[in-house]
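$ ./design --mode recover --in tokens.txt
reading tokens...
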């Protein structure tokens, strides 16, 4: 059976990501930060185009009269990465979108002679860029297409020795002022919580030790700090073994999140039309948020919904409720989203004595 166009686009996204990481991990002068940024740009654009195509979304620019925008060769112009990000991550404070947009703007500021300084200054952002790509790839197309088999933890020494740390600081000081100012101004647009989010900037701590011969073959053990007691954490720090310690933030449910029925009522309160739980389900399916047929849908982000394992229910956040309401403010928008003519809510009247 022949594969669909979106499958081939997704595979090209995977290939571009692997090429990008290869350029990044090359040693010495063989490395190319510019090529890393370029190929990750193409990887993200192909990934989002593939998923949009899979969902039947038209990704070509149109003029106000409905005609397609065409280039000088007469070819239809497809959405650029910036447009795709705005469509797929409408919240301009989304850490994933912010991370990718940082590199879109940084791309034209890279100077090859200072590329080592760029790598040192942006390594945590670059790590997040690749991890976010992997997370979106798996979320949108399943774990079958994970890059885990292709990508490995690189061998390096620069940050692990006193000499390496000294060299790293010297390299950071070589970063061009225009690039440093760009990063500073870019980050100024975001809430501090976004700047600390691991999806925007991903930091790891390496503890070099001697592991026992009975350990698994992998050189690094991945540990979730939020699953360790204080005593466990102290023991870990005193152990002689190699570990990558990752702190993962989790959503806390049942605070402002609600079940579908009250979520539907909350949406209805924000729009001029009637809106019930069946309409809410249609909106969820349209956005691919929450569960369907026992499976998590592609855009089930933590800031939209949370799965409660103990009750086996999805609950929905105020942010997602507002997203639905914002898309249903006019009759035309309501029809486009739900495929039916809206009914106005009954007006409430107050009797005057």
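writing sequence...
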């Amino acid at each position: 059976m022949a594969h669909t166009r979106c499958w081939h686009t997704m595979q090209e996204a995977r290939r571009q990501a692997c090429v990008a990481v290869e350029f990044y991990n090359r040693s010495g002068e063989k490395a190319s930060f510019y090529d890393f940024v370029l190929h990750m740009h193409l990887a993200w654009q192909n990934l989002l185009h593939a998923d949009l195509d899979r969902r039947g979304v038209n990704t070509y620019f149109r003029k106000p009269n409905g005609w397609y925008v065409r280039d000088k060769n007469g070819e239809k112009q497809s959405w650029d990465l910036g447009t795709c990000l705005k469509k797929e991550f409408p919240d301009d404070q989304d850490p994933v979108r912010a991370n990718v947009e940082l590199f879109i703007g940084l791309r034209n500021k890279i100077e090859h002679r200072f590329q080592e300084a760029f790598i040192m200054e942006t390594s945590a952002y670059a790590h997040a860029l690749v991890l976010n790509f992997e997370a979106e790839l798996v979320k949108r197309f399943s774990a079958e297409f994970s890059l885990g088999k292709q990508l490995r933890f690189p061998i390096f020494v620069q940050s692990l020795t006193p000499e390496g740390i000294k060299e790293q600081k010297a390299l950071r000081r070589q970063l061009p002022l225009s690039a440093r100012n760009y990063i500073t101004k870019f980050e100024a647009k975001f809430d501090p919580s976004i700047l600390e989010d691991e999806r925007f900037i991903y930091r790891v701590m390496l503890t070099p030790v001697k592991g026992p011969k009975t350990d698994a073959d992998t050189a690094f053990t991945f540990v979730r700090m939020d699953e360790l007691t204080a005593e466990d954490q102290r023991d870990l720090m005193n152990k002689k073994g190699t570990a990558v310690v990752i702190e993962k933030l989790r959503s806390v449910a049942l605070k402002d999140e609600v079940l579908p029925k009250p979520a539907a009522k909350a949406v209805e309160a924000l729009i001029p039309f009637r809106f019930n739980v069946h309409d809410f389900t249609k909106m969820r399916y349209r956005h691919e948020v929450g569960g369907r047929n026992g499976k998590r849908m592609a855009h089930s982000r933590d800031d939209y919904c949370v799965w409660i394992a103990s009750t086996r229910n999805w609950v929905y956040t105020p942010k997602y409720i507002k997203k639905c309401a914002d898309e249903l403010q006019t009759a035309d928008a309501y029809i486009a989203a739900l495929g039916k003519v809206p009914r106005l809510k009954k007006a409430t009247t107050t009797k005057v004595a």
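exit 0
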